[in-house]
Amino acid sequence: MNIKSIDPDWIAGAWARQNRLTKPPGALGHLEEIGVRLAAIQQTLKPKLGKGAVIVCAADHGVSAEGVSAYPAEVTAQMVQNFLSGGAAINQIARANQAEVYVLDVGVKGLVGMQGFASLHTRKIRQGTSNIAKEPAMTHAEAEQAIRAGIEIAQGAIAEGATILAAGDMGIGNTTVAAALTAALLGLAAEEVTGRGTGVDERGYGKKLEVVGRGLARAESRLGDLTQAGPLEVLAELGGLEIAAIAGVYLAGAEAGIPCVLDGFPVTAGALVACRINPAVRDFLFAGHCSVEPGHKKQLAALSLGPILQLELRLGEGTGAVLSFPILRTAAEVMGGMATFEEAGVST
Amino acid sequence: MNIKSIDPDWIAGAWARQNRLTKPPGALGHLEEIGVRLAAIQQTLKPKLGKGAVIVCAADHGVSAEGVSAYPAEVTAQMVQNFLSGGAAINQIARANQAEVYVLDVGVKGLVGMQGFASLHTRKIRQGTSNIAKEPAMTHAEAEQAIRAGIEIAQGAIAEGATILAAGDMGIGNTTVAAALTAALLGLAAEEVTGRGTGVDERGYGKKLEVVGRGLARAESRLGDLTQAGPLEVLAELGGLEIAAIAGVYLAGAEAGIPCVLDGFPVTAGALVACRINPAVRDFLFAGHCSVEPGHKKQLAALSLGPILQLELRLGEGTGAVLSFPILRTAAEVMGGMATFEEAGVST
Questions:
Q1: Chain B residue numbers touching A337 (CB-CB < 8 A)
Q2: Which residues of B are identified as catalytic?
Q3: CA distance A322 to A302
Q4: Which ipTM did the prediction report?
Q5: Cβ proximity of A83 and A119 under 8 Å
Q6: How many Cα neighbours within 13 Å face the side chain of A336?
Q7: Tens digit of pLDDT for each residue in B184-242?
Q8: What's the gap between Cα A80 and its chain centre?
Q9: Is A46 in CB contact (< 8 Å) with chain B?
């Protein structure tokens, strides 16, 4: 894909204006850097953000058979139905923050007969992945297809007017997969990236740690040093179909040159894959929030991104990403609308 | 004033519903408690927030003659003009977040001839306070008048449709005054509550610390133990006219029974005064953000409030308060709009 890095001259020019606005330099904290990055992304000193989109990517995980989650696997399909009927958290958060919800089924087990929902995009590549503790999650070709599905739905959302993009995730078992992927891509140990997910108990947590370790050892035995392996190879070994699709969403957003907001741990695992495929994706990323999952901090540190919100969210679905949209919109308004000291006749 | 505390039965009832919504319990972090408190304030399980208002209270401070600020005193009047012509940060932030800006001049030195600005409310009690390091800031009657001005403008904003209220501050020298007030009300030392304000240098900071200490010693010599003194007495000794008005804003918001959002250090000093006047005010307060000022953390701890945003803001004007409005609105939508597990047919 053709993704152009941000021009550093635009960053410098935007800071030059930001520092002349009628406030003590730095007094708007992180809002200032957000505004500067939005200016550079849009190549204007008066950036503007309109409506947003969140692509909620959903799939099942063979690894859920290991008992790594507090919820049974059928919840993935049930929650997708909840997204479609508007009863989930992401529906309320999107409505309250001018964002459209797109639901992308790349591998939800047993979800059928859902015709008639305009927000559902069915690109079911297979009925969930294989168990990463025992075998590769999917084939290389399936990983590619899932990425492609994410790209296409994101491109559709952008064509329909989205000026700011986020991915969301739904897939029982996916924090286990995200932990394995994150450990693989960043060269970390299972202990550093494995958390409680939706709230697994002590016994389940021990199982989860062990499963992540087994998956990593298995993948290493096939690919060698995982930090050096190709992103599609790592994804096929340890990935989730929805995480591959999420990588596609961020690739498409970066190619379109619009701000792309991260959600929590599984979504950021997808973004790490996208950045491994094309490092220029990083220039378009904003960290919507920092989740309770310990691995999320590691991911954000690896991307050198500070979180916009710190509300102790751990739900996924894109909730933390969309919740930060108004902060990004406001940062753009501040950058574009404030008077400079000279314009306002204020002493410095 | 007649301020009714929140009914704990409403809090319990709202938590009972919040815990049955289709998400792992607690997965929406601080958003859940915000939604519960909004439900209890509005006495409905489906709370709704519409447009907001921010009352930016402005006044000058005699103590600025001591060289405690990085900016000259005339900046107060210049910034008020900037608010009126729409060039300040609060104007952009309010516009982007469905809030109306009301500017209240309770004591800006030399600001005259500003007729024709609908957003300006002139209730100039005097041309700034006296220097708190040397003498009482104002009389008891003046403190009362300033509180009354804040109450009246806030009541006007509520009558004009505000469903969520914030106060903002403008006054060169007001972090010095806020430090003295906070130390007095909470029984803290000058060192614990004095920060850099708009960015004073090392020499100015030393001066600021010394001035806060002198003000406290002077007030103590007149009132005895300041933690036990009446709030109006403390305000008259160490206050600012805009901080008194801010106390009035929160008193009026709490009496009207609408959510009231705090901004940074000077605004929260005003809220501390309001809570000392009537402790039931606390039930209606939300901490919009946590500022860089060290004393702000102490204030929020004293109020047992966790900040919604942590963006390292230190501007004032109400910016951090209004920036959090969409989070409060979203928390209300989530509380009111999400399906329960039973309603959505999702396994638990």
A1: 86-87, 91-92, 95
A2: 317
A3: 22
A4: 0.96
A5: yes
A6: 20
A7: 999 999 999 999 988 889 999 999 999 999 999 999 999 999 999 999 999 999 999 99
A8: 18
A9: no
